[in-house]
Amino acid sequence: MAASIASLHSYPIKSCAGIDLQSAELTRAGLAHDRRWMVVDAAGRFMTQRQLPRMALIRVALDAQALTLAAPQMEPLRVPLDGSQLADTVENVVVWSATVPARSESARVNAWFSRFLGHPCRLFKVDDQARRAPDPQWAQRWLAAHPDLAGQFEGDHAFGFADGYPVLVANQASLDELNARLGAQGKQPVSMNRFRPNIVVAGEDWPAWDEDHTAFLQAGAAGLALVKPCARCPIPNVDPVTADTGDEPGATLAALHTRETGVIFGMNAIVAQQRPLVLKIGDPVEISLDF
Questions:
Q1: CA angle 122, 72, 96 (to 5 degrees)
Q2: 69 forms bridges with which residues in the sheet?
Q3: Is residue 154 pLDDT above 90, yes or no?
Q4: Strand 23-27 with 277-280, pairing
Q5: C-alpha closest to that of 26 among 180, 183, 212, 224
Q6: Long-range contacts of 141-144 (CB under 8 A, 24+ apart)
Q7: Contact 124, 87 (CB under 8 A)
Q8: 112 phi, psi to nearest 5 deg
């Protein structure tokens, strides 16, 4: 079975706006720069659109030297990629149940975020020595069930501040079906960026919800194990353009695609190859189903 990459997306700062890409470097840690920064509160705990929908309004651009941030009524802000403004001291920050070593960005950057969000907060970048691993329960379950593929995934799968896995894969056909259900109720369709995937795959060979039964995707030399369905929180109900919140698409999705692990959209994945590879929109994707 075959399909292709329909779109690629990176979210350098967890829970802020993403960047749409034509091509992206993929490593075992996920797409380059994806969720390498995170906003934390005074206690060092992560902040997201769940508590602060306004984070959706922070736009991110990326060039070879810096992240450039923009937000309503705020001056643009550049954050160097070379780490020259990071704190010398490593601190532990918390994302869900994981404690991750990271370094704070400058006081100027932290003041910018605190002013826009209306809460004292700091921006942290994951430390180069951090080694956060995916949930072993799901990863090991997949490896045990697929011994013919397991050898490709030996070794480290460390990643940054994503919720639990290096990559989130979504099926365009599933969004199309969700939007058809919304339309049948007289409600507005939603864009894929509500669900914040990294890789969106489309094609007649991957109909809606077939991701539930897909074990493995091969995009060129890049292999992806779909190890865990992504249970959705309320963030897809935040309009990424206005930061307004509502009941949709969550309510319709709950009626359409609830499984034992929750309301599901997308699949969490780990990466096979050890060396960096480049993915491009239009790359063919081979699909291995798992019934």
A1: 35
A2: 60, 77
A3: no
A4: antiparallel
A5: 224
A6: 141/227, 142/215, 142/225, 142/226, 142/227, 142/228, 142/270, 143/225
A7: no
A8: -60, -50
The string of pLDDT tens digits covering residues 16-72 is 999 999 999 999 999 999 999 999 999 999 999 999 999 999 999 999 999 999 999
Average of per-residue pLDDT values in the chain: 95
Residue 186 Ramachandran class (φ > 0 left, ψ -120 to 50 alpha, else beta): left
Helix H, strand E, coil C: the string for 219-239 is ECCEEEEEEEEEECCCHHHEC
Q: Which residues contact 278 (CB under 8 A, 6 or more apart)?
A: 23, 24, 25, 26
DSSP state of 84: T
Of the candidates 129, 47, 148, the residue with the CA atom closest to the CA atom of residue 90: 129
Residue 167: DSSP 8-state: E
Q: Is pLDDT at 1 greater than 80 in this prediction?
A: no
**How many CB atoms neighbour CB 221 within 10 A?**
12
Q: Tell me how long the chain is.
A: 291
pTM beyond 0.90: the answer is yes
- Contacts (Cβ under 8 Å, ≥6 apart) of 215: 142, 145, 146, 149, 225, 226, 288, 289, 290
Peptide bond preceding 249: is omega within 30 degrees of 0, i.e. cis?
yes
**DSSP 3-state assignment of 132?**
strand
SS3 242: coil
**How does 169-205 read in b/e, with b if 16+ C-beta sit within 10 Å?**
bbbbbbbebbbebbeeeebeebebbbbbbbbbbbbeb
Contact between 62 and 33 (Cβ < 8 Å): yes
For residues 67 and 82, what is the distance between their CA atoms, to the nearest angstrom? 10
d(CA 168, CA 132): 16
Alpha-carbon span 57 to 239, nearest angstrom = 10
Phi (first) and psi of residue 151, to 5 degrees: -60, -25
Neighbour count for residue 7 (Cβ, 10 Å): 18
Phi, psi of 166 (to 5 degrees): -65, -30
